[in-house]
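note to self — DONT lose this again. spent like an hour looking for the file last time. sequence + predicted structure for the chain T wanted, 266 res
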Amino acid sequence: MTEAAETAIDETPPSPDEDAARPGEILEMVKTVVYALLIALVLRIFIFQPFTIPSSSMRPNLLIGDYVIVSKFSYGYSRNSIPFSPPLFRGRIFSATPKRGDVIVFKTPAADHKDLIKRLIGLPGDSIQVKAGALYVNGQALTRVADGQARGDEAACPNAATPMRYWETNPVGRRYVTYDCGRGDLDDTPVYLVPEGHYFFMGDNRDNSLDSRVSAEAGGVGYVPAENLVGKAETVMISWKEGASLFKPWTWVLNLRWNRFFHSPR
C-alpha cells in the first residue's frame, strides 16, 4: 500500500498555479538578461570601455596583452562612441579638447575604421616635424634625456636592435618614455601642418609605429578628425604575457603581469 501511495503522489500532475508560474519565471529571467545587456551597453557607450593592446607601437608604456580602460566621456561623444559607428549624427556633443600628451583610442580615418591607440602630439594649427629622430612641435625641439638601453626588449624594434630609452618632455611639461631603435624611415620627415578639426598622433615606440607621419592613403593614419576620437586611456586594468590563451586556463594566472595592474600610460 505504501508503494502504491508513493506512485500516486509521483504521478500527480502539476497544479494549474504551477503551470502559470513557469512562463512568468521565464519572462523575469529574460527581462533580467535584457536589463543587464542594456546597462552594459550604456556603460560602454557613455562611461568606460576596455581595449586590448595588439602591437608594440606604444612600448614601453603599453605592452601587448594590456587591457586598458578608456574613459568615453573625456572628450564628449560622437557616432564613433557607439558600437559600429552608426551615422546617427555628425561632430561631437559635450565636446572637450584633448590635452597634449594624452594617450587616446581613435578610429582610423581609412575606410576600415580600426581602433588604434597612440599619443596625441599635435593640435589643430600645429606644425610637426621629426629631424634625426628628434620631435619638433611648432619649430621647437622637445627635450629628450637618454635613460640607457632597454636590454631584453629587442622584440620592440623592427630591426631587432636594442632600443634606447628617452624621457621626452612635451610643450606643456608632460614627461613620458619613448623608444629609439636607431635610424629609421620616419626619423626625418617633412613639416606636417595639422588642419583645423584634426589631430596628429604618434606611437611611443617611434621606429615601430605606423602613425600620423604616414598618410592614410599610404597605409598609415594621417591626420585624425576630431569626430574619430573614442576616449582617453586611463589605466591598465590587467595584463597577460604572450602565450596566455582562453583555451589554457592555467595561463590565466601563470601568465599574468602582476606589476602591470593599474599601471598608468602617463
